[in-house]
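Worked Example 4.2. Read the sequence first, then its structure tokens.
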Amino acid sequence: MPLLRSVSGLRATLGDSLTPDVVASYAAAFSTMLADGPIVVGRDGRPSGQWMEDVLVGTLRSCGRTVERLGMVPTPTVQLLVEHGDAVGGISITASHNPSPWNGLKFIDATGVFLDAQANSRLWQIVDASLFAYSAEQQAGHVINVTDAVERHLRAVLPPTSMSVRLTRPLRVVVDTVNASASFIVPEALRRLGLDVVELHCSGSGIFPHVPEPITENLTELAEAVRRERADLGVAVDPDGDRLVLFDEHGNPIGEELTIALAVRSVLSSGKVGPVVINYSTTRTVEDIAATYGCVTHRTPVGEINVVRKMQETNAVIGGEGSGGVIDPAVHYGRDAIVGIARIVDLLLREDTSLSNIVRSLPSYSMVKTKFDIPSTLNMTVLQDELIRTFTDAHITTDDGIRISWSDRWVQCRTSNTEPIIRIIAEAPSRPLAEELITQIRSVAGV
């Protein structure tokens, strides 16, 4: 499997594309790009992250850097500590939702956000040309073991006083963190919000009990546990703690797309109105919700940094991605499951009703997501031209693959940032209409 490089960082499979030499090269190159100062390092809990952390720390020290080592923490914790601390950058050791044979690196700049396309290109050039160098002096970089990173994250997200005073009864929640980086912070956040927490796969071992991507087919145990425990909701996050997925009190999946929709409703209904930013692949439910509060919605290519840059440009009050990522600039500019949990629990408490009732009140669409290996014969430029000629009655954008939209439906065809696949996603008022859009694109693309 080749090394995958994108605005989502670096990912690869262990033992072939991902080796100590590769990790060291990227760490040294990243150090070369940064101003003087410490670098924050955290990992998502995978066992392979331990040796990668050792290589990173040793390499950065050999570059004369001070390393603030957080150990196993969510990626948004690394981002938050960079944004609100004295570090000049950060590295999160993670392959996000990819299976256990994978790991990778996410690079964070001095403002706490991921490297954008230009900065990533510069990083790759430094690595490819071996333009990095180690310290010629005594290589005196040292390590600071940060033990309160999770506490600092919780204090930044949660209100000074627990919201539990507004509860007529404790809400019960079942939590699945796939034994990874959010194993301790998510249950603790929910307890501080006044909820009764049932932990499912929250050991922190880094051993995934199921396929780690937080989508419905991988979360059957969580659904069963919600029903068995008579819980009010279920919460699932991915290995690095930036994606949040919910189940209602009946054990029914809410769907990762509605995480950002619920967070947007929570923020806007609290009286904090302003622009909203999402990516091209995110449900139009968000646009409908924003419109009811007189707020404009902006769209960007997929990739957290793309959403963040547009949020900064428009002074957005909330943003995120339909993969379950919520970005609240009042806390920090990064997708953060803890932020999503706090905002959605606040919505539940203010509306004083069940999660299923809130979801039923949202605008309803059906989304179909498909993915295929990229055919060797596929030329995206040729495909875009053909689709533009085919769909003459639609609004078309080509910022991220090609997205074809009408007033009540859309379809997008794009190559993945994180896997060697092509994705076709469609959304329409009904599933048959969405599937028909998929069929039309597949026919033209030959996949």
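Now turn to a second chain, presented in exactly the same format:
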Amino acid sequence: MTTLLINSIYRATEGEGIHIGIPQIFVRFQGCHIGCVNCDTKESWEFDPSYTKSLDEVMEQVETLSQNIIKRVSITGGDPLHPSHIPSLLDLIKELKARGYFINIEAAGTRVVKEVFDQVDFISYDVKTPSTQVRTSKELLLKFIQDYAHKAQIKAVVADKKDFEAAYDAFHFVKAANDNQVPWCLTPCFEPGEAFPMNRFQLVVQLNEKFGLPFRVIGQQHKWVYGPDVKSV
């Protein structure tokens, strides 16, 4: 029997990236070793067996939330691409596809997992900026874009000018080496407990203009609506 470590399953409107505003079902895996210091879901880091669910239980929750109306699922985490998750993740993807769901996966930018990426419909691939204290390999990013630009977006969380410049450096590196078109989205950081960071948003917009408008600047809509501390929305 397939079992998965699942933090939560919930219905919500996509809050970020190029699919912002589209209702979907989120399946959040439990367990992550990446360690972004500004992560807003640190409760999903521990590989805690108490979060174990069977594949049948996961699909029952997805189908209940879907009501056969919402046929999009976003798989997130935690880190759904951690090697320990891959066998159960592939079983989940197979079952979702058999039932006609469009599948997006949130990729942390630390791995390219061909057997997963080939099966899903869309990939949101992170570029980690200095404020996360995690590094994204530009070579791995280039390989990802070469193979999956046709069904992907690149996302980067930006806290300050240093983060913006790091994202632009990665963008420039990839563009110089490869002409494949893929949308790049910058997300101005909106930290838990923080008032809406208007100045940060304005800074990112201004820097994007200064650097020739390479990015789409798209905030996290769910945090505007519910505040930065509310989960599963």
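Notes for the reader: The chain has a mean pLDDT of 95. The beta strands are 3-13, 23-29, 52-54, 72-76, 102-107, 122-126, 152-158, 184-188, 216-217.
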